Structures are given as structure tokens and as C-alpha cells.
Amino acid sequence: MPDGRRTRGAEWSVTLPSFLWLIVLFVVPSVIVFAIAFKPATPYGGIGAGWTLDTIRSLGNPNYPAIVWRTIWLSVVTTVACLLLSVPMGYTMARAPKRWQNTLLLLVIIPFWTSFLVRIFAWKMLLHPEGALKRSLVALGVAGPDTQLLYNSWAVLLVLVYTELPFAILPIYAAAEKFDFRLIEAARDLGASPFQAFRSVFVPGIRRGIVTAMLVTFIPALGAYVVPDIVGGPSSEMLGNKIAQRTFVDRNLPEASALSALLALAVLLPTFGVLALNRGRNLLAPKSESSP
Amino acid sequence: MAEFLEFENVHKHYGKVRAVDGVSLSIRRGEFFSLLGPSGCGKTTLLRILAGFERPDQGRVFLDGQDITDLPPHKRKVNTIFQNYALFPHLTVRQNIGFGLKIAGVDRSTIEREVDAMLALIQMEDQAGKYPDQVSGGQKQRVAIARALIKKPDVLLLDEPLAALDLKLRQKMLIELDLIHDEVGITFVYVTHDQGEAMSLSDRIAVMNRGKVEQLGTPTEIYEAPRSSFVAAFIGDTNFFEGTVAEMVGPDYSRLAIDGFPDVVVFNDKQLKTGDLIYLSVRPEKIRISRDRPEQGAHSNVVPAHVEDVVYLGSHTKYWVRVQDYRIAVFQQHNRFLLDEQPIRWGEDVFIRWHADDGFMLERYSESDERLMGTPPEEVGESDNGAERAPTGTDGA
What we know:
The structure holds 2 protein chains of 2 kinds.
Chain A: H1 2-36, H2 54-57, H3 64-95, H4 98-109, H5 116-127, H6 132-140, H7 153-178, H8 182-189, H9 194-205, H10 207-222, H11 226-231, H12 239-249, H13 253-284
Chain B: E1 5-14, E2 17-27, E3 32-36, H1 43-51, E4 58-63, E5 66-67, E6 78-81, H2 93-103, H3 108-121, H4 137-149, E7 155-159, H5 167-184, E8 187-192, H6 195-201, E9 204-209, E10 212-217, H7 219-224, H8 229-234, E11 239-249, E12 253-258, E13 264-267, E14 277-282, E15 288-290, E16 300-312, E17 316-323, E18 326-333, E19 349-355, E20 359-362, H9 367-374, H10 377-382, H11 389-395
Parallel strand pairs in B: 3-8, 3-9, 6-7, 7-8
Antiparallel strand pairs in B: 1-2, 1-4, 4-5, 9-10, 11-12, 11-14, 12-13, 14-20, 15-19, 16-17, 16-19, 17-18
Helix pairs in contact in B: 2-3, 2-4, 3-4
């Protein structure tokens, strides 16, 4: 089958560059990180010779469970909050007149034109004890003068949701835009209230968009480092902060690697789980998002 | 409000477009009722008002004595077969059919039983576990019917349900729809631009044009006695002649003056006076064609003509004959085939004849009707921008 071989060859020549890129810049560094986790640390920040399980044992540090737990719940709540906001948003955008849709899409993307760091510092100013938000809340009597808006887990959560929201809206809008809204009418016709129609027809109809949104908000939130570092305090440290601290302050690369490996596994396992689940469903319902 | 389903002076405007312009209709219980017209005539808007997806700007809708104008769609005992069926792609055939009952909170064993009964009705018991993408067009259609009927609606709305099917399947589904209507006995309101579908299924038809009902009647009434030039042109084929009323002949007949014709006698069912400008409509199959001059009674018209074209169509022959400026279509049924019969051929001089009662005087038609007359109704339905696109467009549907 010369034809088959030629297409196979063509496929490879197209795939090879990105494949190499992934190997060199993703797989190799990951393997190195995993490997360093099994090396001893030297007092001056280097990596010692030989292999050891000491660094892995250091994961038993009694401070870690609280941080891991906080990292997970902050990421989960961030993901849930982003979904709760972006699914109705995607619905509204997709139902808006076509000329409005592009404007709304632009508004979602505009924040990306400003540096991520600058936007986080802007939040810091907003939430600052002397900041505009704090003052107006006190003036309205909602917050007491001693209420701390900054440097706690709520501030981290708020800014994480702010950061991840556009990434959740985009895939959900993309799915909603392809959704056949006549199905909503069909559901209403069959006795569904507006909310029932939304829940039982629209949400399953954009399932792929929701799964993508979940992955692209949960994974970055899990690895968040800048946000808790700037608007969080000691009580709202996340795993990312600990890794940074081990690397730059303690100069203990093996321990930083062990934590990174732990995080990587924590990200990969749910991802594979979700993908497997999704593929299983797809086998049952091929082309389930298209409609005649 | 004696009737089962009443539209009372219903108006619906989209900007300046009058999609529905003062429609009053009464539909009887158990009737198969069609709304027929070209796209943009307001038939779909009227259906959407009945389903509850649109609210009329003015007028009321009554179902079984109850004013349903302001009821939301899910509170009406009305269910719809959508044009593209709108089956839920993430649910199986069984789940699609059971959807309405599940939403209503019916217990699972009852749902199973009812769905099984529906699957038997549409003969798809063996397809219950499949998803809509895995079944054929005709089967999707049947699932859509079952999904709507399981709610036991008072009225079933059908929005061009056969438009997405190929010709053969369409004819098959036409029969099935008729059987289902007989079996369930509920009121069907059927929207279509296809006069053939409407004629073969309906008890009564409302022919719509530009947001108004042009004529309401049985298929026979609408075909045999069109009340406007639009109806005459839209339903079936017809020949139009332009003329003036020359003379009244007795109480029931008029004599017309038409350029190039001897005097034409026509039944006069309208309040016309001498000198009125009118259109005369004569259906092609009402005209007889012969080589010899036929006898002319008091109420028949005989006109010499020249055959320009002959199209043999098996069961009948279509002739195109010329009289002055008019090119006239004539259908001749083949009642028997005689070996020694000499068929009329292209280029022959012949006589055409029709009875005064087979001609209809109609008001002068508008420009849009003129366009219709040039094209068969099926094609008119596809083109046209029209008001009906407006609601779906703004809804993003």
C-alpha cells in the first residue's frame, strides 16, 4: 500500500516539529523534575550525587496537608464559580444579535491586552485598606473599618475567579454559539419551564465546552502562584507558593521538584479521568453536538 | 367563541413588516386544518403565536373556551412538530419521547409504559436505544410525532414537517400523518407552502398571503372556486385573461370583452358592473380542445387557437395553445386510447372550449401575484425574504 505509506509519511512530517517541541520542552523537563525529586539536596542549593527517598519523605511535612487542601478547595471553588458565571454568560452572548456578539466577545478578551501582573496589582489597590472599594464598603456600612479585604483566602479566590473567567467563557461561548436554540423551544413546547429547558437541554448541549472550561480553569488555579503571592497572606498560601519558596528562598531544588511532581500528578490524574469519561460518552453519542 | 380554537383579530408586526395582519380564524375540534401560503405570508408566525413562542401585538387566541393568549408555551395543551424535528441530540429515542412526561414529574414506570405504547404506534420498538443522529430522516420525523403526542395535546401543530424529506419519503409520511390523525383524533394545525400536501391532508385550508387569510375553505372549494387571483395562482395551475365587463346577461352571467377573443360568457358571482376591469381565471383541465368546431351552447365559450406545444404526460397531455397575446395551458385527460385516433399535434389550428361556470372573475392582482404566476408555488416558497424569517432571526434561532 504505497498510498497509505505516503500519507503516513506526510502525517509524520507535519506532526514532527510540534512533537519535537513537546519532547524537548515538556517531556524532558518533566522527567528531569521527577528525577531531581529522588536526589539529595546539598547545603548550598545544588543537587547531590546518588539517589535517595529523603525528599519524597519530606512530603510528609505536617505543614503540607493544610496547604494541599487549601490549594484544592480554592481551585475547585474557582472552577465552580467560573462555570456558574460563564454558562449563563455564554448563553446570553450566543442569543444576542450577531452584531452584539462580536462586541461582547471583544469585551471578554480586552483584559488580556493589559499585563497580567498589572491587573493583579490593580486588584491589590482596589482591595487595599485605603483603597476605593474598602472605603466605599465602609461608607455603605457593609464592612466595618477593621475588615480586611486583602491578604486572605477570599481575596485569592476573588482574583483567581477574575483571572480564569475569560478562559471559561471562551470555550463555553464557542459551544453555545453552535447550539441549536430551537431545542430550547422544543423543550418549552413539551412543558419545560425556562429554567428546566436551560438545565435539561442547553447545559447537556454545550457539555464539551463545559468540560474544556473546567480543565482550563481548574489546572491553572491549581498551579497558581502569582495571585496568592500578591493578594494572599501567610494564611492563604498555595502549593505554588511553597514550590517557589523551596526554590528561591530555601534553595532546595529536590524538595521543590517533589512538590512539583505531586502537583503535576494532581493535575494529570483528573485530566485523564475527565478525558476518558468524555470519550466514553462520545462513543455512545457520536456527533452529539451537531443537529440536522 | 363557539369553536374549539379561535384566532380573534390577531396582529403581529416586526418593525414595519406586518407578519400577521388581522387574522380571525375558527378551527373545529378534531379537524385537520392547514395554513397554506408562500414564505413570508405569516403562517409560521401564526403557528408560533398558537404555540406560545410569540405574543400577538393585538387580538386574542382561545382554546376550548379559554383565553390562552398570555400563557407561556409550557402551560398550553398544544405541542409542536418542528420543521427540523428539533430532537434532543444528547438523548436516545426513548428518552426523547419520554422527555415531556419526565419534565412533568410522571413516575418512571408510567413513562416506560407510555413510551412503549408510542414506540409501538410509530413502529420503532427496536430503535429505542439509538440517538437521533443514528436514525433516518423519516424515523426522526416519527420520533418527533411520538414526542409531541405523548403529551396528549388538544392541538398538534406541524410546522412544514415534510420539508426536510425527499419526495418518496414525503409521500409515505403524508399517508402516515393521515393515519395518525385518524387514530388519535385530535386537532391538527398544519403549516405548509406545498399546496399538494395541504390539499391531500386537510379538512379545511386557510390560504394566506401578506399576513392575511385570502380564502378559507375545503380543498375543493379553494381549488374550484378561488376567490382571489392570488388563490387561483397559488393553488394549482390556471390561465388568466385580462378584460372588462361588457354586458350583464341575465342575473347570473356576464359577457366579457377580452382582447383577441370573441365575447366570453362567465358566471358572475360578484357584485360587478359594466365597465369593471377584471381577471378571468380558467383552470387548464376545464378547457376542452378539439380539431372541429364544437357546438356552442348559450353558456359555453369557443375560441379558435393555434397549438404551440404538446407535452405527453402519460395520464394526460398538456397543450400550450396561442390566442393572440395569450399562451394558454390545456390539460386533456386520456379517458381511452383509440388506435385510429389522430392526436392533435404541434402547429395545428384547433378550437378550445370551456363552460361559463368554469371561469372565475377575480379582482386585478397585485405585483406579487404576478411573480407567483410565473413560477410554480413550490419554488415561490423557497425564495422570498419575507416576514417569517424576522422572528427566528432576532431570536437567534
